[in-house]
UniProtKB/TrEMBL annotation:
SMART domains reported in the protein's UniProt record: AAA
Coiled coil: none
Organism: Solirubrobacter ginsenosidimutans
GO CC terms of this entry: plasma membrane
Protein name (database record): ATP-dependent zinc metalloprotease FtsH
Amino acid sequence: MWGSLAQNALLLGLAIAATTLLALFFIGLTLLQPKSPGHEIPLSEARTLIDAKKDNPVSQATLRDQDARLELDTYSGEQLWSSYPHSDSYTSALLDALGAHKINTTVDSQAGKPTLRAVVQFLLPILILATLFALFTVLARDKGGAFASFSKWSGKGQKAGSGRFTFADVAGAPEALVELREFTDYLENPSKYSELGARAPKGVLLVGPPGTGKTLLARAVAGEAQANFFSISGSEFVESLVGVGAARVRDLFRQARLAAPAIIFIDEIDAVGRQRGAGMGQGHDEREQTLNQMLVEMDGFGAEAGLVVMAATNRPDILDNALLRPGRFDRQVVVDLPDVHGRTEILQLHARTSPVSPQADLGRIAAQTPGMSGADLANVVNEASLLAVRAGKPMVEQEELEEAIDRTLMGPARKSHLLTQDELWRIAVHESGHAIVAEAIDYPVALQKLSVVSRGRGRGGATIYASTDQLMQTQLDLQKSLITSMGGAAAEAYVFGMLSTGVEDDLNQATKMAHSMVAVYGMSPAIGPVSVGETPGEVFIGRDLANMGNVAAETLALVDTETRRMVLDAEETARQILSINTDVLEDLANSLLKAETLSGPSLDVYMEAVAGWPEPLIKDTSHRSPIHLRRES
Ligand SMILES: Nc1ncnc2c1ncn2[C@@H]1O[C@H](COP(=O)(O)OP(=O)(O)OP(=O)(O)O)[C@@H](O)[C@H]1O
Ligand SMILES: [Zn+2]
């Protein structure tokens, strides 16, 4: 809860300083009370002495105007003093009286002569205030207190030129680099875009598991384009008070605008960018305000600004749709875990800055580390260097590198393990299942890439399709994508006789889709073309039935049954497709296991061998059998 050790020390120090200063202030005030000589008399008595008409006893008077004190010396050698009301009129009245009786008077206004007392009186309160202010600021930053908006936002500007990263510092992510070129292009010459009235690229979402170099990529874009770099993490907004996050966002954008061309990098954007209205409990309002402010800022600058906002997440699925609209984060760049090729390149890159022996076989290290991220691999090289130093060797040899793999796996930050051969094989079968099923039913979106490592630990591989621009989807389209989603689970069940946790995302997606088909799009014959009032894609489970309005409980039960039936049907179809393509499944899975990723021609070979599925994908069409209508164009 309480930040770092250093922050604690700072807090303690400030608290002590504030207390000390406060004590000094009061001690100082009493001790430095000016000591007037002699004894105090009431003002009335002093006036009587001054005003005495005969034998005036006062030999000499001193007006200490600043302290509002009147000191009187008498001819009898007495020293007396008295306080008087501190006002200009009273002072001049006193001076008049003294003058009238020709009393020798000194006025000591002390103006322009700062005494110790003045210092105490005026500087100490300022010092105390400053210390208290600093204290609050630190507190606020740490706990999200009310003063946080005064504290400096924690974004850091990176001066172009100092310790810059470039694309040469990123290895094993060629696709990401290609996509990011456009942003460096724009940053190097924003006016080109504004002159042409072209829509400048504004926001890009870097999607990928931790440690895959998302931050590195953002910095590299800044470095390539000689742009300034500002970064902030979404998690910094969590737990702060309402309004603080929004203020920081405003600040950040203002600073970046002044420093343009610039990149604003928002790490862990999912911490603020979740679906609005989906959060619960504390910090929810704050998150929404911060998110809204972000949207406002992103809409508030045009092509001429020379600003690019990059954000990183590994959960793009939970982001608020408003963030993904055109003119905001409308681009996504996937930053996958590297395959064996990528890992070799990353190792080579990091080996360049360490004394790695040319005899070391980095390809072998790459082959032993499926599932490791770029950050893990950088760590392997680093650990190996430490081991070499400890062993007194001048160079890092194979031995150290291999030991460093184990050390990296045992490291404190590491939450998972390497993918074993068994896991890789299962993932290869699963992904091949998706691809073969999609091919057999002529899934309308092109398959681009198959991978057994790319999607992050514990999540298995990925089957990546080109994104589609299609706005309207028919029942057949949805049915195809449902069957394709079930291809992975069907393959696991078909080949291994049981599922694994790797099917989680697929089943989730398939269930949501089937549910929408039933409850929203009227595609289930049992329910008919009736909307059950649900938001597309939401699942009933755990939902408050009281919110369901006019929908009868029986209907809800029927929606459930129909959803399940649709998913089961799709799985059955997928399984049958696989059973007529067992040979392709075997070959493809093996090839994938060896190469870790397949794309382009090496993938096409297998796809061409897939036998198509001859049967209709939509059953139960009896209630809506088509007729033939002449169409004239
Ligand atoms: N593709 C890569 N090429 C070279 N080095 C890499 C690569 N990926 C990661 N690294 C190394 O790992 C370090 C950490 O990566 P970075 O912080 O950019 O990852 P990230 O994806 O932003 O992680 P997180 O999501 O945890 O913030 C980099 O500074 C770099 O040394
Ligand atoms: Zn899958």
